[in-house]
Description:
It comes from Rhizobium puerariae. The protein is an alpha/beta fold.
Amino acid sequence: MALSFIKRVFTFGKPAEEQAPEAERPDEIAAVEAGQPEPRPHDEDLPVSPVDPVAATEIETAGGPSADDVAENVELSESETEEEETLPILPDAEDASDTGVAPLSLLEAEAEAGQASEVPAADLSTSAENGSREVPALPKGFSTALPEPEPVAAAPAPRLTWFQRLRAGLARTSSQLTGQITALFTKRKLDEDTLEELEDLLIQADLGVETAMRITGALSSERYGKDVTGEDVSRIMAGEITKVLSPVAKPLQLDLNHKPHVILVVGVNGTGKTTTIGKLAAKLSGAGLKVMLAAGDTFRAAAIEQLKIWADRTGSEFIGTKLGADAAGLAYDAYEQARANKSDVLIIDTAGRLQNRTELMAELEKIVRVLGKLDPDAPHTVLQTLDATTGQNAMNQVEIFRNVAGVSGLIMTKLDGTARGGILVAIAAKHKLPVYFIGVGEGIDDLEPFEAQDFAKAIAGLTH
Ligand SMILES: Nc1nc2c(ncn2[C@@H]2O[C@H](COP(=O)(O)OP(=O)(O)OP(=O)(O)O)[C@@H](O)[C@H]2O)c(=O)[nH]1
């Protein structure tokens, strides 16, 4: 694995001024940054690394039709279809109505229908030229329905940019918030009452007291006593949320001096640990890194199976053990095997059982202790997944897992379709832990580096 190649992939998009010159970065080759690609992935025109599995999909569709093209094609296809369907059937019927002929008797209609089935082959081949399939001339006494035109393949839906997907995912959060804000400020000036009501709205939207006060404070100093529109509030809100989120929007640092760099993934069950591991593995192995996945959730057979599927799907190595086996023992074996295989990254899944907290604490502590014996710095990253749909619960979960396992960074999942996306802002303000990625779907490419401004705008319902 050429390190220069890794470096290129994981610093991809970093603005030149942010990258220290070679001489100033002796650790540059080792400290590789995963995620946070800039220019942002929604800049579809920008060059994309051909080894990025997500980008690869984009490349496949990048030359595809624009939304306008698609619309045109659809219209064209529809009109073509109509033409095909009407060509062989209409002439007789049209002639009849055009000439104002009175309705035929049943007998005459049957006779005409018989004639219709005797349309000469030559006539039918004309319709074939227009796109329909050719029908052989049938002997007298046979009839056939005219062939159905070939179905017109539906034009592929244009791929949405990341920002569009994020906005769609957070639409419930933002529409609820902006709808209430607009209603609040309709025909009302910004005064103490409206400020207080706004603060309540922002707190109810899970943004947290601190951020709510920041927003009302900024709004008050700019517009007190004046008319305020929902748009004014959205803009100020986006600005203040960006300020809260920017310090935590950090890339996941991989130190490839360690072989393997160990990522321990923790979190309550169902928050998306296994799925997120699969998505991360896809990004890393797609970039040429050698990845091993360890099924440390030994409580659930399905979790082991699920991780194995992700390993196969992402070309990662897999290590598991039997149901109920000691997870710390599995972590030990996984580390040894990953080191022997010269894996770049070892990602360890764990069981999440908040209801058995003592047991969970003991197990996680043991895994961390065992890994520390193998490499004093391991686990090098302790990643916690948080399910956005759980709102305030997610806040408490960070508290618990931070104490138990020394969480070093977060990934928030299920931001698609939730009205509670604001919780990420409250968590950032309170815990100040790095947020590396966010998940907006169950698909392999539904995980993107967390970007403060995009997220803030999406929550505030801004389109640009
Ligand atoms: N909509 C949506 N679903 C997600 C996302 N991430 C994960 N999921 C789904 O959430 C469910 C739980 O995900 P898992 O990865 O099994 O969660 P887990 O934390 O490993 O759960 P346990 O194995 O029970 O501890 C699955 O159905 C996933 O497909 C996301 O970003 N959006």
